[in-house]
Here is the input.
Amino acid sequence: MDIFTIGDWMISGIIMASGFSRRMKRDKLLMKINNKQIIKYVIEAAKESNLDEIILVYRREEIKNIGKNYNIKTIYNEKAHLGQCQSIIKGIEEARGSGYMFLAGDQPFINYILINKLIEE
Here is the structure.
């Protein structure tokens, strides 16, 4: 018998979207695939999934505005220059969940089926 079931957990999805895209030399989250910005693919997959809440940790105002358009919680990462760990810290500080799923903002091919499978596992 499992100690926990899915019903016992509130899973917070934390989208890490406050990087600098230094190697790309432009913000890859705003780049388009099939005429849609990469960050939108991740947000839409998260929204379609069984995540209980979604938190977008951002650095740029444009990313925040996209999150607001999807009606998800947005958190500014004022320490983004210190690395990805700061997105993790900010997300956990704001999350209400008892479990966390971290999603990179630059994964346009992630989908809700994969997210749900990870939640189940």
Notes: Residues 1-5 have pLDDT under 50 and may be disordered.
